[in-house]
Structures are given as C-alpha cells and as structure tokens.
Amino acid sequence: MSTQLESGDSLLNNVTFPRLLLEHARLRPAHPAYREKYLGIWQTESWSEAAIKVRELACGLASKGFTRGMTLGIIGDNRPRLYQAMLAAHALGGTPVPLYQDAVATEMTYVLQDAEIGFAFAEDQEQVDKLLELADQTPTLRHIFYIDPRGMRGYEDARLCFIEDLIEQGRAFNQANSDFFDAQVALGKSSDVSVILYTSGTTGKPKGVCQTHASMIGAGRGACEVDALSPTDSVMAYLPMAWVGDFLFSMAQCLSSGFTVNCPESRETLSTDMKEIGPTYYFAPPRVYEGLLTSVTIRMEDAGRIKRKMFDYFMGVAQNCGADLLDGKAVSLGQRILYTLGNAFVYGPLRNTLGMSNIRVAYTAGEAIGPDLFRFYRSIGVNLKQLYGQTETCAYVCIQRDGQVKYDSVGKPSPGVEVRIGDNSEVLVRGVSMMDHYYKNEAATKDAFDADGYFRTGDAGVVDSDGDLRIIDRAKDVSTLANGKVFAPKYIENKLKFFSFIKEAVVFGSGRETISAFVNIDLEAVGNWAERRNISYAGYVDLAGNASVAELIRGCIEKMNEELSRESMLGHAQVSKFLVLHKELDPDDDELTRTRKVRRGFVESKYAPLVSAIYGGLSEQFIETQVRFEDGREGKVSATLKIHEAPTFEVRKA
C-alpha cells in the first residue's frame, strides 16, 4: 500500500472496501482504476469515475429493495461492472457471492439456494439463461441484472433488468437522496463479511467461506508490502471471480495499493491483450505456465535450424546465470555480456511473445510447479515466485520474497501470519487472513480450528532450516502402502505433471503392494510430437491409445522413478504400472473441481474396473464412460485400454 494512502486514510481503524474506493477517488481521481477491452478497443475508467459508478449501482440496488445483510450473486467473466457491483453491495452492507462462470446450471443451484441469493448480476445471455433455468428451484431470486444486451431483446421475464437501466434508476435515486450512499458507507464495519466464496467441494458439498473486510484487506496489504505494489502497477484479471485468488488480487490488493485492473475481451484474446497492456503484476496456476512453455517449445521445433541453435545456446546461458542475475547474485563479466546478448536476441522477444515484457512480479499457486519450469521463467528474467494459501486464509499464508526463492518450498509466512506444524504433520495457520466462519455451518467452523485458534489447512508439510514451508500432500491423502511405508499420491502426481506431455495424473496405492497411475496426455504437446513423427490420429481417444504414445509416457514415468529413487523420504513410492485414459478428466463430469483439483475418490469409484484390472494383473480392460457435453447433453465414450508396466529403480541410500 502506498505511503500516501496510509497517511491520508483516517478510517484505517474500521477499514472497508468502499472507504478505500472513496479514498482513491479523492487522492488519485484521474488515475486508471479499470481497463476493459471491448470490440477490440481498450476502455479506461478512472478512480473517480469508478466511485461514481459504484454509487449509482448501489443506489439502483437500494431502489430495488437491496438492504443490509442481503447477498448478491455475481456470475460472468472478469468485468469492471461486476467488480463494481460487488463494491456496491459492500456499500449497502450486503455480501457478494461470486459463482463460477463455466458451471452448468445444476451446479449453481446449491450455491444459489444455500446463500439465499435474491439479487444477481449476470454478464450475458448465457449466464442469464442458466439463472432462468433454475427459477423454479430458486424462488428467492427476484432480480437479475445483465451487462451485455446482445441476444436479450426477446426476453420478457419481469426479473430481468439491463444494467444501464439500473444505473439510470440509481442516478435518479441518488439525486433524490443525496446523503443516502455516504450514510450507508459510514455504517460499514471492518468486521462485516466482504465476500462468501464457496469451496470446491472435493470431498462433499461446497462450504461458503465468509471473509470479512478486515481479513481480506489485511491479506491485500500484507502482499502489497512484500512486493512494494503501488498505483503504478497493473494486473490482468482473467481468472474466475469465484476463486479466492482473483478476489485477493483484483479487489483486496487493487484497493490496498491503487493499481489498475485490466479485463481482457475474452479468454481467447488473452494472449494478445497481455501484449497490448504489458501488466507489471501477474498470477497464473502452474498449468498456464506449462501451457505457455509448451507453445514456445512447439514453435521452436518448427523454427529453422539457425534459429533453433541460437535459442538452445542462449537458453543454456540463461540456465547458468539468469536466475542468479535476477536475485542480484555475483555473476562473471563474461556471463553478463552473454546474457545481455541473449536478452536482445532471445529472452526479450520471448517475454514479449508471452506478454511478460513489463512483468515485475509473477506468482503461481494452487499446485506444485516443476523445478525445470520454475527455472525456465526465472532464467529469462521473469520474477516468478510461489505463494500458498486456501480460500479460508484469503490465499495468504506464505509468500516467497525476492532473493529468497527456492524451487521446493512456498516461502516464509506472510506478514501477520503464524504457521506451525501439528503432530500429524498438518500445516496449522492463524493470523490476519483467517476466515470468520462457514456460512450457516457452525459445526464445520468449529472443526476448522484447533484449541489455540489455528486453522487446520488439511495439508501436510515441513518447515526447513531457513524457515520456509514445504508442502508434501493433503494430510488426509498421506497414507501407507501395504508394507507400511509412507505414500503421498499428490506429490507423485505433481512430479508426473511436470512433464509437458502429461496434463493430469491420478495415482493409487494406499494399502496396496504397488503404486499405479492414470495419465491424461496433453493433446497439444503430444499431438505436435506425433505429427513430427508422422503418427496419424483422429482425435484424443485415438492418440491416447497409440502404442508410441504409451512408450512416450513410459519414458516420462521412468525418468520420474529414477529421480524418486534418489529421495530418501519417498524413494520407495515409484509407479510400477500405468494406463493412458481414453478421455480427459473434466469438471463437467465431476472428475475435477472447478479449480481443476482431482476428486480422487470419485475417480477411483468411477473407474473401478480399471483399478481392479491393474491390481488384478490384467493387460487390458474395456471401459465405457458417461460424459457430459458443453451444451448439457450426455453421451458415452468407450475404449479398451492397455495396462503398461514402468521400470522402477532401487532406492539409493543418502
């Protein structure tokens, strides 16, 4: 947070998001608060303009009967008006409840009912249709405001209202009640709930996590302090608004520091939009960084011989000294000269291609990121770091500091946060970013904290000699093999996903003699690999069942097993059998959560015949699987899958 805002804000003892908004509008009225690309043109809204729009939206909602204590549904891609709608709800003492925009209508039912949502903002016709489809199951939903009018002309439902009409009504309400908005903001307390974010429901029904203004702003300010974020920074907002990370970056950190939030035109134009905006601050889960690197690798494979040789040579230089230069460590003059040349011919153009030319700070979280992937980005000058947290902790527990980046840890505790390891190796946390409670779930709230007020993260971890936290697996998933040795499936799955050809993996072995794996191939990476070897295929199912692809995956597993054999803790946990699944694991089929976490228990149950075949010693197994298409239709896909053996290695003693 900027020193200027700290000294100017007289309400820090009872800070809320609307108060921060009004303070930015006072201190830097003309500074860009939001940018949105619409029909190919970037539209900019200043802090003063944003404050006016929030006032009008809040007054419009009040005119429709929205009052303190109510919940406001938010569904759509990242749009300034949706962020402003959340601030409008805050101003009136209400609570926004973002929903995943790619969720099918039936998935939204539980959240709409549980949160008792009566008012909702929907981005476009697609989201409106979902809400109307659920009308009979959600009688509390009385008002739906839509942003994009395209396709809405024939709709006659009385609950629908175009957002511009709502703003016009709010403008009239404000003129007639000029003191109303400010009086409502003054009633707000930092202890009020600022957002209800529903967990992914990996093991059961989603729980509504209630985060207060104080917890979210505390997390936002702490993160801004670590990386000296200021109004001169800007971030690209493209991740789901229902995910805690987006609320932390695009709301809490934005309103703590005053930086600019940029909303791309669509997910398809994100790459182009990144290059045009050149954000200084960036976040992506590991799979996005992996996808970007895969696309770079594919392009270089198709490049000319001279270009490939130059790329390979300078990437070797980068691997030797790039990360050290980034961390300010001593590097020889010769290496500095070579790196400068590489920056001119390779690294600079590459960062520009990735839209990362101006990146000052980049983060990843949610899953482990491969050391090679981590080194690649840092070696070309992208200050990539890791953070760690959960929805219940505002995604704010540990942050890696500049100059203290280690590839196998998630950093030291964030400012205002305490971390300790429980008797069962579970990571326990307390501090500024802790949730207030689970919505309407007192029992779950009580179970989430220990007697000393530490939140039980559910993750197993260790703290190294430098005070950095290292996450091993989910505590509940850490079990034993039949021989009593420790088995951490997530650790192995992450190591498999470090290979660009493997998109997803599910590992089994608890209570068994050996470890086996289901593998999803990365269609783009493996497809390019196959085409360069003149291997024809008709689609994912055909490619996944190809014998050459199985050998490719066997090679990846063999390499991972060899690496594991050198680890004293989990060297025994090598994969001995695997199969390549005939379909991609999909959130629409309930195999993954909306944040793409594997529902391991569900997958094991759904594909029980395959698990039985592996441990029954069979060489192949027929499977027919129910799938759900994007339009809601259901169908089946079937295949006879081959079960393959993978080489294992004797564990080397330390």
Description:
The chain is 39% helix and 21% strand. It has 654 residues and is an alpha/beta fold. Among the domains are: 260 residues, 3-Layer(aba) Sandwich (Rossmann fold); 168 residues, GMP Synthetase, Chain A, domain 3 (2-Layer Sandwich). The strands form eight sheets. It has a five-stranded parallel β-sheet, with helices on both faces. Strands 12-13-14-15-16 form a five-stranded mixed β-sheet. Strands 2-1-11-10 form a four-stranded mixed β-sheet, sandwiched between helices. α6 links the parallel β5 and β6.
Q: Based on CA inertia axes, which overall geometry fits?
A: globular
User: Widest sheet: strand order?
Assistant: 4-3-5-6-7
- Helix/strand structural class: alpha/beta
Largest sheet: 5 strands, parallel
Average pLDDT, all residues = 91
| Strand proportion | 15-25%
The helix tally amounts to 22
